[in-house]
Amino acid sequence: MTMKSEFQKDQTELVIERTFDVPRELLYAAWTSREKLEKWWGPKGYDLHVTQFDLRSDGIFLYKQQSPEGMEMWGKFEFKEIDAPRKLMYISSFSNSAGETVRAPFSSSWPLEIQNTLMFVEQDRTTKLIMRGTPLNATAEEYQTFEAAKEQIEEGFNGTLDQLESYLDDIL
């Protein structure tokens, strides 16, 4: 496994790369299956409950995360581009239980929407995941908040990708 992250100010983009020792189709399926996402997506120790999963352009992945202490947080992906098994593009946001976009519970200046592009690149018997995320339709303050949170975003995704790697190890 290799990890690389960089933050490009000119594009306000976070890029995370990680190589998994699995075929591309298996890694792609882990991102595009309701049942598989429920096994690994989200912060470590949180329970994930998927209430809606419609993998198609403009389809929604709506989920609730619950902390060990009982705190609930809702989120959603709105799928924009699906090119199996090479690419997945979606817009992520915090939401309420009805799927309506809401402000992040931790910041009034967090961007309402983040555009995420995942590329699944085959390399011999491994797959490199390239994740790109950037605020969408954000204010200057929201861009600044996103930029200032780079290390926290990276830590969060590292933990989630660790869970993905463990999940993949368990099913192989």
Automatic annotation (TrEMBL):
Residue ranges of the TM segments: none
InterPro entries assigned to the protein according to its UniProt record, in alphabetical order: ASHA1/2-like_C, START-like_dom_sf
Pfam families for the chain: AHSA1
Ranges for domain Activator of Hsp90 ATPase homologue 1/2-like C-terminal: 21-168
Domain of life: Bacteria
Family membership: Belongs to the AHA1 family.
Protein name from the UniProt record: Polyketide cyclase
Native species: Guptibacillus hwajinpoensis
